[in-house]
Write a structure and sequence with these properties.
Blueprint (H helix, E strand, L loop, with lengths): L9 E7 L4 H11 L5 E8 L5 H8 L4 E3 L8 E2 L1 H13 L4 E4 L5 E2 L1 H6 L4 E5 L11 H8 L3 E8 L9 E8 L6 H24 L3 E4 L2 E4 L3
Parallel strand pairs: 1-2, 1-5, 2-3, 4-6, 5-7
Antiparallel strand pairs: 7-8, 8-9, 10-11
Length: 212
């Protein structure tokens, strides 16, 4: 259990496109009292995404919101609807939990330095898709996961937390990805814990963590 704090709850908005296991890890940390936060809304661009069911099970506002006509980005009218919904629910920080769209300028400027993503590699190594497979194909001995701020690049934002996973000789893409996800479920709540406690600041591109 974290030490008691008088800081207000950090209000989190979550965007996701799939199963939402990272969202669940945040829900669990809040329920356990180890994260001083509240998920105020979950939005998905996929109508039947399991992340919506996870949220509703815990009494969290959850909504499918089409991002059409775009297939890979969130922009124009769709972007405005997402922004308006996040603001309506009071989101202070936006967490991308398997959200499979590129975030554009409107969202980035509205939530400047307040959008987080988790990437299944030790950035700047292996950006982009299926990074665990990239690491395996490259012959890397270690990989892991990175929680970082989102900027206009692809997995290029300032790094907050990284956790290391060894690549085993008998690893397949599936086994390696599964072990990385275990670390993701630790890293994401920890990064949010730093923000909720006011212990995270930025000096240029560098994330600085103040001592507890």
């Amino acid at each position: 259990m974290n030490r008691k704090t008088n800081r207000p709850l950090l209000k989190i908005g979550v965007l996701g496109s799939g199963k939402g296991s990272n969202c669940q890890s945040i829900i669990d940390a809040i329920a356990a009292g180890t994260l001083n936060a509240e998920i105020v809304c979950v939005i998905s661009d996929v109508e039947n995404a399991f992340i919506l069911e996870r949220a509703r099970k815990h009494g969290i506002f959850a909504q499918f919101m089409s991002a059409a006509p775009f297939k890979t980005k969130l922009e124009a009218d769709a972007e405005k609807k997402y922004i308006d919904t996040l603001k309506l629910h009071g989101a202070e920080v936006v967490v991308l939990a398997g959200f499979m769209r590129i975030i554009k300028k409107g969202m980035l400027s509205t939530f400047s330095r307040r959008i987080l993503n988790i990437h299944p590699a030790l950035l700047p190594a292996f950006p982009g898709v299926e990074s665990w497979k990239q690491a395996l194909d490259y012959g890397a001995k270690f990989t892991g996961c990175t929680v970082h701020l989102v900027d206009e690049g692809t997995d290029t934002g300032p790094i907050i937390i990284q956790r290391v996973v060894p690549v085993l000789d008998n690893d397949t893409p599936e086994t390696l990805h599964a072990r990385i996800q275990v670390e993701e479920h630790i890293a994401y709540p920890e990064a949010l814990r730093l923000i909720a406690a006011g212990r995270l600041s930025f000096d240029g591109r560098r994330a600085k963590i103040e001592m507890d």
